[in-house]
Amino acid sequence: MRSATVRLPGHPDHACDLVAEAIVGEFVRRDPASRLRVGVVGGRGVMFVSGDVASTADFDISALVKRTLGSLGVTDEVEPFISIEPVDAALVAPFRQHAHAAVTAIGYATSETPEGVPSVVSAARRIAKALDAKRTGDPEWFWFGPDAEVTAFGDGARIARVVATIEHGAEPLADVRRKIEEEIRSVADGASVLVNPAGACERRGLAARSGASGRLPAAYGSLIPQTSHVGLDPSSAEKAGAWLCREAARTLLVDDIRAVQVRATYLPGDVKPSSVVARDEKGNDLTSRLALDTLSLDRVMGTWWRPGLDMDAHRWGFAGEPGMPWES
């Protein structure tokens, strides 16, 4: 059985992810040649941001952290501590390469859903978005905090079970379960539903627990191997390669092909991959159908990147989301 987890913006791990991506985006907006690697951890009223950077950009990172958290619905006071330092002069040249070591990027596409992602990913994402819309747009849901997590389980197109864990303030748990279950069944009717199976959860989020960036690289659910590219600049082989391989997989999903996986390996100094393998769900080799130029890392900054893209791509998952350039 496959599974997929989608988190709302106030989940501590996801908040740390989005803060890291906001920082990356601001550096690149101010200096498109920026190269950086940023990590974020936080909780219990503090947030630590550390990383290495090669960039001419200079701005108040603490203020950006606070603005980003506010935009995510995190209203508790969080004090940022920043330690992002320039790369040592002797290391600038290798740091500016797209790949610092051998990197294998993976892209996947399937005909299971119109979005081209597995059914469990689509279901978990649609449920999470529906809950977030209630949180932000329905005054009667004032009790619903921004920290929530939805996990869908299923085989093929069938969603067998959905588990949701949310913070709900002083709202009675029985009422919370009834309301959340109604929203879930509007997307996954017929699935068994568990809401806060561990019991009441009045307070979660960064005020009550800690999180860290890069913990949940799950754009395609549980069965596709993935690595995190959170906090990396969009020229990096990890991030740019993942986006490019997703586009490549989508282009190969034609005729009676039901699923495609593309793997591209970039070595230090590479702009184009040193090796590429593309296969369908039956193991048939589709590599010859790919043009190597379409996997060139400089395409991202040359044609795709726009302010806010890094954060937008990570908010719900970069694969299958409308508005992403690799999805068009």
Strand content: 15-25%
- Radius of gyration from the alpha-carbon trace, in angstroms: 20 Å
Arithmetic mean pLDDT: 95
Order of helices and strands: EHEEHEHEHEEHEHEHEEHH
Structural class: alpha+beta
CATH architecture descriptor name of the largest domain: 2-Layer Sandwich
Strands in their spatial order, largest beta sheet? 1-6-7-8
Oligomerization state:
single chain
Which regions are unreliable across 5 or more consecutive residues at pLDDT < 50? none
The beta-strand count equals 11
The level of helicity is 25-40%
Shape: flat
Spatial separation of the terminal alpha carbons:
30 Å
What top-tier CATH class of the largest domain fits best?
A: Alpha Beta
Largest sheet, strands/sense/barrel: 4 strands, mixed
Number of helices in the DSSP assignment = 9
Q: Tell me the count of domains.
A: 3
Within the CATH hierarchy, at the fold level, what is the topology of the largest domain? GMP Synthetase, Chain A, domain 3
Characterize the structure shown.
By secondary structure, this protein is α+β, with helices and mostly antiparallel strands. It folds into 3 domains: 2-6 and 118-210, GMP Synthetase, Chain A, domain 3, CATH 3.30.300; 13-95, GMP Synthetase, Chain A, domain 3 (2-Layer Sandwich), CATH 3.30.300.10; 103-115 and 212-302, 2-Layer Sandwich (GMP Synthetase, Chain A, domain 3). 31% of the residues lie in helices and 24% in strands. The protein has helices at 12-30, 61-71, 92-95, 119-137, 173-187, 205-208, 237-252, 298-304, 309-315; strands spanning 2-7, 35-43, 46-54, 79-86, 103-110, 148-155, 158-166, 192-195, 210-212, 259-266, 275-280. It has a 4-stranded mixed sheet with strand order 1-6-7-8, covered by helices on one side. The chain has a 4-stranded mixed sheet with strand order 4-3-2-9. It is flat. The two termini are 30 Å apart.
